[in-house]
Amino acid sequence: MRARDSYAEPYRIKMVEPIRLKDRATREELIKEAHYNIFNLKAEDIYIDLLTDSGTSAMSANQWAGMMLGDESYAGSRNFFNLQAALQDIFGYQYVVPTHQGRAAENILMSMFVDKNQKVPGNMHFDTTEGHIRLREAQPLNLVIDEGLKSGSDHLFKGNIDLDRLEDELQNNPVSKLPLIIITATCNNNGGQPVAMDNLRAASELARKYNRPLFIDAARYAENCYFVKQRDPAYRDKSIRDIAREMFSYADGCTMSSKKDALVNIGGFLAFKNNEEWYEKAVQIQICYEGFRTYGGLAGRDLEAIARGLYEGTEEEYLEDRIGQVSYLGHRLLDLGVPIVTPVGGHGVFVDALKFLPHLPQSYFPAQSLTVELYREAGIRSVELGACAFGYTDPETGREVFPAQELVRLTVPRRVYTDRHMDLVVKAFEAIAGRKENIRGLEITYQAEILRHFTARFRLREQ
Ligand code: P61
């Protein structure tokens, strides 16, 4: 990768959206009114929004031009065929089932394959994927390698699945107990960490040996391909498109939230390599939940933006700048001594809140406390991926069950902020680091039964 200061963004800005920093007293008031949960803040009250990279990309002039060519016919829209052609070209997949977003594609996939009391192994399922598995009273199995859960480990492919454990599961469970495998690339939950091509190839061989389908959660597949090119010498001279082709050749299909690497604000799809029977089955479910096969819950213009975005998302200059910006933020924080997940991932910097705020036990929601502090300090919105999002109150014992990691994600939207915005994030950490012992923990005053992080309310604990 070239040094960040040897090149500039490979685009110029044509349209701007004003953002404003509210004064500190107002921010203090707003976060209190939001019950110390950043999901309850209004977007207009935020200065730099690092909540998510999902659906927050800036589209290109080419994508906007494509929007004007939206063919809104109920059946047979030309934009569907453009999307299908992009899938065939980039992924090498024959069949595409558009959906309104990624989780809808997961819904169709799980309806087709998953039933009560089954297990679905993967490296680390995203929470919507887990949700769809659990909805069917089946069990998600996260078999990421041990290194993948150590924030300080510098393993280059921390998204890899543990092949021994996968084989063990495949050997000990018939198809009726374990119907498919899903690999998420990059792996969101542990820091946007990539899956190695060798690992995917080996998982694919196991899938074939034991006769189970393998699917890729392709939300951030292009970022994964970029890491393969950077970190595996065998791929140094290959193009991102060639790497993507090889990666998808190892699976039988994929789900994709287009809101990430397809650089659009809404949309998703399920795709199959060549199994027509699966495709026809998927279309039956798609019609009930999403819409006719050539629009699947999206406007024709949205399909066009995805088709064009898929190409842009695999351009090398774009990826170098995108991953380079996330890496820039991560390395500046490391220089400050902020403990983050390393190597820096693809879509954001993940701060280890237990290490950054060692005076707060996990029961005091340290990652949530840090998200609150970033807003109070600088109007920055980040997101907690720790005790609130992934922990829960055990209904039998009434005790809190904590996840292995307690992270704050600084998620960088694509083509939206400049490095100067990143510098302000670093400055905020610098200010907070100087007085971090004074940061107070939180306690929950209200929580929903599932996905509690979206609506939970907190109060500040006494020191
Ligand atoms: C995110 F807190 N991700 O990272 P959909 N697979 C993968 C994803 O990262 C993903 C989806 C599938 C989001 C949005 C988000 O509880 C939450 O298009 C690897 O959002 O349906 C989404 O794709 C689902 C954040 C979603 C959350 C659910 O910010």
Distance between the termini: 45 Å
Tell me, briefly, the overall form.
Answer: globular
Strand content: 5-15%
The order of strands across the largest sheet is: 2-8-7-6-5
CATH class of the largest domain: Alpha Beta
The rounded Rg comes to 22 Å
Question: Structural class from helices and strands?
Answer: alpha/beta
Query: Level of helix content?
Result: 25-40%
Brief overview:
The protein is α/β, with parallel strands linked by helices and 463 residues long. The chain folds into two domains: 4-53 and 315-460, Alpha-Beta Complex (Aspartate Aminotransferase, domain 1), CATH 3.90.1150; 61-312, Aspartate Aminotransferase, domain 2, CATH 3.40.640.10.
Structure description:
The structure is a single chain. The model has no long low-confidence stretch (mean pLDDT 96). It contains 16 helices and 16 strands. Strand 5, helix 7 and strand 6 form a beta-alpha-beta unit. It has two domains: 196 residues, Aspartate Aminotransferase, domain 1, CATH 3.90.1150.10; 252 residues, Aspartate Aminotransferase, domain 2, CATH 3.40.640. The N and C termini lie far apart (45 Å). The strands form six sheets. A five-stranded mixed β-sheet has the order 2-8-7-6-5, with helices on both faces. A three-stranded antiparallel β-sheet has the order 9-14-11. By secondary structure, it is of the alpha/beta class. The structure holds ligand P61. The site of ligand P61 has 16 residues, from helix 4 and helix 5.
